[in-house]
Amino acid sequence: MVDRAPIRIGVDARELVHPQTAIGRYTTELCKALDQLLPCAPFFLYSNRPICVPAESPRWVARLDSRIGASYLHPLVWLMARGGRLCQPDQLDVYWGAATILPRLPESVRAVVTVYSLFHLNESWFR
Fold it and tell me: Which of 46, 60, 98, 118 has its CA 20 to 30 A from that of 13?
């Protein structure tokens, strides 16, 4: 039997700010569930603004972009311009795009994205 290192998980934490939106609450609750399901996995939370870490554990590491001016960027602009670079040193196995968009990631990183709504694809659904 081969011992494997724990899976290294990156999380888009832009919605884990205060006060939380519905997406932030969903992300928080799913992070708590993942913490229980994956008790050995390290989690890395990426944002350009201070966040509320969803689990009290040393396995949860907030990676706030400390580059000058990063906190002034719109979170989506920051994710596309800087988010992927912030992830590189952590050698992630998987990245969860908790707010529908993924940054540019190395090909070796698997990605999961949560899509909350498709209403913009067909306006006739809401007439």
Answer: 118
